[in-house]
């Protein structure tokens, strides 16, 4: 035990000695695929999940664009991938200008891309990007005096739809921020928030935390538009404006299963209008670009045998292990789950089922089913409600136990769709 402990300290010292990159906030951001800072020191497997491996001031102008941040950092930290092997990820930490250091929000952005260059730590610099859509939430959280950490939860392989890996990376970003400390109080409270692809990472973090990080005590998790079941989602979005999620979803889920990936690629057509080249184009697209490129396409037309590609035991295994919520643990933190009853992308029935399962074994959930709007509208319609709920859990004024499931009718005038 002692030996282990000593060798761990040596490893950490070794790692600390290779922490490079003097703070240079004015430097232009470099895409992660080209920035050597995005690589772990080779000793990283010996570090513990959540250990800080590198830290730097975030390049670019984030401090200027986020008026209420006094400083913005990138942390590269040790985590565990979707197959339970040592890995690493990066988070972007916003320090609020005015704060009592009592609250940390882990905010998961739905970047939904298999291009590592769409990771928030880089993409936050581009206000026109997908991450640009949610910048207001970060501004608001900062103006409330909360520290905000925004993890690249898909990790170095941009493993979209890999629930286990996304959950681990989300949990470990919180550990990393707490380990570094910043000026957070000893008794600071921390919570998670995410919508859609961001709730994917948040929910998996909540269900994995009970075993993976039992020492953590999250004040809560607010999660909207939960993608609870990807078989169901893949069918729902085929041929619709959401089809652009499918190529990335299939590549993301196989990104850590080489045999499944090889099989997937072998099933792609090599000619005709729906061929391998068009399918793989998603590897260099942000989600907004993918939505535009694949809009209304029947994505299974890219495969020789259509949707039967999903029936392969190789693909089934990846799906079973990574893409159905509610099987890896029962979250013990209070949760706010909000969802449009008419969500056309992530069916309400699938989320009802997850909530029922958790409620059957004592979870603490407020589940609000909004009778107005669809998937996009709910992002706006649920925003204020989620912020108010987070303010209560982070402020220590939240008192709720058991499950409260109710239909609500929330309508925000400028909500899309
Ligand atoms: C930050 O930089 C980006 C491009 O690098 C630019 O579009 C944006 O306007 C800048 N924001 C501020 C507040 O300077
Ligand atoms: C910064 O916070 C103050 C309140 O502390 C708020 O009035 C202001 O709008 C915030 N600025 C931004 C850019 O969010
Ligand atoms: C996921 O959804 C599909 C299609 O609706 C359904 O057949 C399957 O049972 C669901 N899987 C889980 C694990 O809930
Ligand atoms: C593959 O699809 C692209 C469109 O994505 C098309 O331009 C190209 O001609 C196709 N290739 C073949 C060999 O049919
Ligand atoms: C996709 O289909 C919807 C509904 O039919 C339509 O409104 C939209 O314009 C289509 N988009 C494209 C890019 O064809
Ligand atoms: C939501 O609000 C908008 C704008 O006030 C209104 O046009 C729309 O009818 C409302 N929707 C419902 C279902 O009440």
Structural class: alpha/beta
Largest sheet: 10 strands, mixed
How much of the sequence lies in strands comes to 15-25%
CATH fold-level assignment of the largest domain: Rossmann fold
CATH class of the largest domain: Alpha Beta
The CATH architecture term of the largest domain is 3-Layer(aba) Sandwich
The radius of gyration is 20 Å
Shape: globular
Number of domains: 2
Q: Indicate the percent of residues in helices.
A: 25-40%
Distance between the termini: 58 Å
Ligand set: 2-acetamido-2-deoxy-beta-D-glucopyranose
The number of strands is 10
Order of helices and strands: HEHEEEHHEHEHEHHHHHHEHEHHE
Which regions have little confidence, pLDDT < 50, spanning 5+ residues?
1-25
Number of helices: 15
* CATH H level, superfamily name of the largest domain: Alpha/Beta hydrolase fold, catalytic domain
Q: Enumerate the strands of the largest sheet in spatial order, edge to edge or round the barrel.
A: 1-2-3-5-4-6-7-8-9-10
Mean pLDDT: 92
Family: Belongs to the AB hydrolase superfamily. Lipase family.
Organism: Extremus antarcticus
Pfam families: LIP (PF03583)
GO biological process, one term: lipid catabolic process
């Amino acid at each position: 035990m002692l030996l282990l402990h000593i060798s761990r300290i040596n490893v950490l010292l070794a790692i600390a000695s290779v922490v490079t990159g003097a703070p240079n906030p004015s430097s232009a951001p470099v895409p992660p695929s080209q920035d050597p800072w995005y690589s772990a020191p080779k000793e990283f497997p010996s570090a513990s999940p959540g250990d800080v491996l590198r830290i730097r001031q975030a390049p670019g102008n984030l401090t200027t664009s986020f008026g209420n941040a006094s400083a913005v950092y990138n942390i590269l930290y040790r985590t565990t991938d979707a197959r339970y092997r040592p890995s690493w990820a990066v988070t972007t930490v916003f320090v609020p200008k005015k704060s009592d250091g009592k609250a940390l929000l882990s905010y998961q952005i739905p970047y939904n891309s298999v291009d590592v260059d769409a990771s928030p730590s880089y993409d936050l610099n581009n206000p026109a990007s997908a991450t640009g859509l949610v910048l207001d939430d970060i501004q608001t959280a900062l103006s409330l005096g909360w520290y905000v950490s925004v993890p690249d939860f898909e990790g170095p392989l941009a493993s979209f739809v890999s629930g286990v890996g996304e959950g681990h990376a989300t949990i470990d970003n919180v550990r990393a921020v707490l380990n570094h400390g910043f000026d957070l109080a000893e008794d600071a409270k921390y919570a998670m928030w995410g919508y859609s692809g961001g709730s994917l990472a948040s929910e998996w973090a909540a269900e994995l935390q009970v075993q993976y990080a039992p020492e953590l005590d999250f004040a809560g998790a607010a999660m909207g538009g939960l993608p609870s079941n990807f078989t169901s989602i893949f069918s729902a979005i085929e041929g619709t404006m959401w089809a652009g999620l499918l190529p990335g979803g299939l590549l993301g889920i196989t990104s850590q299963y080489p045999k499944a990936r090889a099989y997937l690629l072998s099933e792609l057509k090599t000619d005709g209008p729906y061929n391998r080249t068009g399918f793989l184009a998603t590897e260099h697209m942000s989600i907004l670009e993918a939505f535009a490129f694949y809009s209304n396409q029947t994505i299974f037309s890219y495969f020789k045998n259509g949707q039967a590609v999903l029936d392969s035991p190789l693909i089934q295994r990846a799906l079973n292990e990574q893409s159905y919520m509610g099987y890896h643990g029962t979250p013990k933190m209070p949760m706010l789950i909000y969802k449009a009853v008419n969500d056309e992308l992530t069916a309400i029935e699938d989320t009802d089922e997850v909530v029922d399962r958790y409620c059957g074994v004592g979870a603490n959930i407020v589940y609000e089913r909004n009778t107005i709007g669809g998937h996009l509208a709910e992002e706006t319609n649920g925003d204020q409600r989620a912020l108010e709920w987070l303010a209560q859990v982070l402020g220590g004024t939240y008192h709720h136990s058991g499950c409260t499931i109710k239909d609500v009718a929330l309508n925000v005038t400028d909500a899309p769709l």
